[in-house]
Write a structure and sequence with these properties.
12 helices, Quinone Oxidoreductase, Chain A, domain 1, Rossmann fold, single chain, about 30% helix, alpha/beta
C-alpha cells in the first residue's frame, strides 16, 4: 500500500515527507494507522548509522494509532483497537523468559537492523528498499507494521497524542525510577537532564514519595517547569559546583540518581554527588568512554548501572502508567508540545534548543 512517511536520507538533510510502498501485514504482523508519534533523542542519535548502512530510513519508535488489519496468526489484537507501540523482543531467549525483554538477546536485529528478522524490507520506493522496522514499527509514517510483542492495547477513548511517548521516553524515565531505583519515602532523588525522560522520572519519583527531588538542568524554562511539577530544588550547572549544590539540596547527597544526558563529565559528577551506598542509573546515549573515581565507588559502596527502556515489560508497565495518569499523578500532558508531521524538522530544532520538552507529531 502507498503511505506517506518522513524519510531521512542523511543526518544533515533533515526529514522529508515522501510516498513509500508498505508491505501488507504478514501472518504475524499488525497494520496500524498512526495518529501520533513522539520524537525521541534515539531517533536522531541512530539515524546516521542506519543511513550509512542502508540508505534512506523511516524512523519513529513512539507510535500510537488504530489497528487496521492483523495477520492470521495474531491473537489478542483486533482491527479497531487503539494501541501504543513500543520496542520489540523475541519472547523466547533466556532474558525474555526471565522477565527482562529490554535486554533481549536478539534486540539489535529486532529493533535496529532496518529490516525484518529474515532480512526483508517492509518498505520500498521506486522498487528500492527503504530501511524500516525501527523498533519494530517505523512510526514516522501514516501507517506502520508492528507485532504482538511491541503492541499495547489501550482504552477506546485514550488520547493517542498524550500516550504515544509512553512507548519509549516516558516509559524509560518512569521505569528507571519505579522499576530499578525504587526510592522510598526517605530517599533523596536527583535527575540530570530535564527533557522528556528526566521529567517523567521526576514525576515517578514524586509518585514513589521521595523526600527530596532535585533536577539539574541548564535551560531556565525547563528548571521552572520542573519546579511546577514538584521538584524541591533545581540546579543550574552553569552556576557553580554542581556536586556541592546537589549534596546540599539532598542533605549530604542523593541516595538515588538518574542521568539522562549521556555526557561523561555529568555522569562522573552524578556519581561523585551520591550519598554513600547510593545508586546512579544511566539511560543516556553518549560517548562510549567514561572515567569514574574507583576509590569513591568502592569505599562508599556506590552503584552505577545502565538501564534500557526502564527495565519495563510494556504490556504490564504502560497500563500502570496510564492508571497513574488517569489519577492525575503522572501529568505527562504538561511535557508535550504537538506538531504536524509536516513540521517535523521544526520539532527537531525545538527539541535540540530546549524550547520543547517532548515533541509529539500528529497527522
Amino acid at each position: 500500500m502507498r503511505i506517506t512517511a518522513a524519510v531521512s536520507r542523511a543526518t544533515e538533510s533533515g526529514f522529508t515527507l515522501e510516498t513509500v510502498e508498505l508491505d501488507p501485514p504478514r501472518e504475524d504482523e499488525i497494520l496500524v494507522r498512526i495518529a501520533a508519534g513522539g520524537l525521541c533523542h534515539t531517533d536522531l542519535a541512530i539515524r546516521s548509522a542506519i543511513t550509512a548502512e542502508h540508505g534512506p530510513v523511516v524512523l519513529g519508535h513512539e507510535g500510537a494509532g488504530v489497528v487496521e488489519e492483523v495477520g492470521d496468526a495474531v491473537a489478542g489484537v483486533s482491527p479497531g483497537d487503539r494501541v501504543i507501540l513500543s520496542y520489540r523482543s523475541c519472547r523466547r531467549c533466556g532474558r525474555c523468559l526471565a522477565g527482562r525483554p529490554a535486554y533481549c538477546e536478539d534486540s539489535m536485529r529486532l529493533n535496529n537492523s532496518g529490516r525484518r528478522v529474515d532480512g526483508s524490507a517492509t518498505m520500498r520506493q521506486g522498487g528500492a528498499p527503504v530501511a524500516g522496522s525501527f523498533f519494530g514499527q517505523s512510526s514516522f509514517a501514516t501507517h506502520a507494521l508492528a507485532s504482538t510483542d511491541n503492541v499495547v492495547v489501550v482504552a477506546p477513548d485514550a488520547d493517542l497524542t498524550t500516550v504515544a511517548p509512553l512507548g519509549c521516553g516516558f516509559q524509560t524515565g518512569a521505569g528507571a525510577v519505579l522499576n530499578v531505583l525504587r526510592p522510598g519515602p526517605d530517599a533523596g532523588f536527583a535527575v540530570y537532564g530535564a527533557g522528556g525522560v528526566g521529567l517523567s522520572a521526576l514525576l515517578a519519583a514524586k509518585v514513589a514519595g521521595a523526600a527530596s527531588l532535585v533536577v539539574v538542568e541548564p535551560v531556565a524554562e525547563r528548571r521552572a517547569l520542573a519546579t511546577r511539577l514538584g521538584a524541591t530544588a533545581v540546579v543550574d550547572p552553569a552556576a557553580g559546583d554542581v556536586v556541592a549544590a546537589v549534596r546540599e539540596a539532598t542533605d549530604g547527597g542523593p541516595t538515588h540518581a538518574l542521568d539522562t544526558t549521556g555526557i561523561p563529565s555529568v555522569v562522573a559528577d552524578a556519581a561523585r554527588a551520591l550519598a554513600p551506598t547510593g545508586t546512579l542509573v544511566v539511560v543516556g546515549l553518549g560517548d562510549a568512554q567514561l572515567t569514574l573515581d574507583l576509590q569513591d565507588l568502592m569505599l562508599n559502596g556506590k552503584t552505577v548501572r545502565g538501564c534500557i527502556e526502564g527495565d519495563a515489560v510494556p504490556q504490564r508497565f504502560i497500563p500502570e502508567l496510564l492508571d497513574l495518569h488517569a489519577a492525575g499523578r503522572f501529568p505527562v500532558d504538561e511535557l508535550i508540545t504537538t506538531y504536524s508531521f509536516a513540521e517535523i524538522n521544526r520539532a527537531v530544532d525545538d527539541q535540540r534548543s530546549g524550547r520543547t520538552v517532548k515533541p509529539v507529531l500528529v497527522w
